[in-house]
């Protein structure tokens, strides 16, 4: 069984919108929407990994992220620990640097069913958080 540590950035702008990207057609949980992020590499903290992943995936440099939530999720073939960081300060404008579609969506309009199931508790928390 794979054991993965994943760092994720919840990029929120001043209008209260969240930037989300779409998973590749050939990826695990293909075509689902997600908060950008990726695997924590050896020797990295969750925060360092999230900052690196946001630079690689959506071309922004995050600063002053706040840990929003941490949760664990078990799939039949893998166990993941997700570190969700709220990113409200960054440089650059997010875009699909790896060719992936991206869009801004109102925080209270996030739909859990459009995301991998491990994201559901965090989406519920975001919908209830100002």
Annotate the secondary structure layout.
Elements: E1 2-12, E2 17-22, E3 33-34, E4 37-39, H1 46-58, E5 61-63, E6 66-74, E7 78-87, E8 89-91, E9 102-106, H2 120-128
Parallel strand pairs: 1-7
Antiparallel strand pairs: 1-2, 1-4, 2-3, 2-9, 5-8, 6-7
The H-and-E topology, N to C, reads as: EEEEHEEEEEH
Mean pLDDT: 95
- Give Rg in angstroms: 14 Å
Percentage of residues in strands: 35-45%
Oligomer: single chain
Instruction: Provide the low-confidence segments as ranges.
Output: none
Here the CATH topology equals Nucleoside Triphosphate Pyrophosphohydrolase
Principal-axis shape equals globular
Query: Percent range for helical residues?
Result: 10-25%
Output the CATH homologous superfamily: Nucleoside Triphosphate Pyrophosphohydrolase
EC number: 3.6.1.55
GO molecular function: 8-oxo-7,8-dihydrodeoxyguanosine triphosphate pyrophosphatase activity
Catalytic activity: 8-oxo-dGTP + H2O = 8-oxo-dGMP + diphosphate + H(+); 8-oxo-GTP + H2O = 8-oxo-GMP + diphosphate + H(+)
Keywords: DNA damage, DNA repair, DNA replication, Hydrolase, Magnesium, Metal-binding, Mutator protein
């Amino acid at each position: 069984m794979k054991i993965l540590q994943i760092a994720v950035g919840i990029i929120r702008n001043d209008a209260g919108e969240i930037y989300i990207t779409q998973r590749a057609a050939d990826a695990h949980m293909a075509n689902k929407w997600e908060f950008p992020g990726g695997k924590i590499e050896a020797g990295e903290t969750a925060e360092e990994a999230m900052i690196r992943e946001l630079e690689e995936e959506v071309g922004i440099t995050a600063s002053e992220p706040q840990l929003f939530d941490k949760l664990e999720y078990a799939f039949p073939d893998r166990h993941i620990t997700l570190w969700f960081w709220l990113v409200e300060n960054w440089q650059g404008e997010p875009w699909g640097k790896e060719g992936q579609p991206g869009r801004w969506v109102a925080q209270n309009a996030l739909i859990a069913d459009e995301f991998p199931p491990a994201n559901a508790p965090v989406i519920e928390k975001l919908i209830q958080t100002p």
